[in-house]
Design brief:
This protein is mostly helical. Among the domains are: about 50 residues; about 40 residues, no CATH class. It contains 4 helices and no strands. Helix 1 packs across helix 2. The longest helix has about 35 residues. One of its GO terms (biological process) is mitochondrial respiratory chain complex IV assembly. It is found in: Mitochondrion inner membrane. Keywords: Membrane, Mitochondrion, Mitochondrion inner membrane, Transmembrane, Transmembrane helix. This is Cytochrome c oxidase assembly protein COX16, mitochondrial.
Length: about 130
């Protein structure tokens, strides 16, 4: 007779053991025989189901973002942040604001500039901002 029995020890079900304990014991005993079927397959199924559920949720997120951000046309680009000489509601005048008539006018305006004799000018800094001088 061998030193250890080949039979596995199984507790006798008592009235004190709950249904969860009994199901857990059955699951653990069957898990050793069929690990992929009882652990791997449910795990992979949850991962696949989550990807199908999260795809529309992610698409909704980006659709909301796209509704907030939209592309401007040329006229809106020229007006955005580049207000008139007095500004609108406290927005100060932007010196870069100008109305571009045609490409021909722009070409002649740039050609009229004297590019050989230019001088570098420092811009005024905000209070507390370092100006880069030592």
């Amino acid at each position: 007779m061998p030193a250890f029995q080949s039979k596995t020890f199984r507790r006798t079900p008592t009235a004190s053991s709950s249904l969860g304990e009994r199901l857990g014991a059955v699951y653990r005993s069957k898990l050793t025989r069929h690990p992929f079927l009882l652990f791997g397959l449910p795990f992979i199924s949850v991962i696949l189901a989550a990807s199908f559920v999260l795809t529309p949720a992610t698409a909704l997120r980006y659709e909301r973002y796209d509704r907030k951000v939209h592309q401007l046309n040329k006229d809106e680009e020229m007006e955005l942040g580049l207000k008139g000489p007095d500004g609108d509601e406290g927005i100060k005048r932007n010196p870069r604001r100008r109305v571009v008539g045609s490409e021909r006018d722009e070409y002649y305006r740039l050609m009229a500039k004297d590019l050989d004799h230019w001088e570098q000018k420092r811009v005024q800094r905000f209070k507390g901002e370092p100006d880069g001088r030592f």
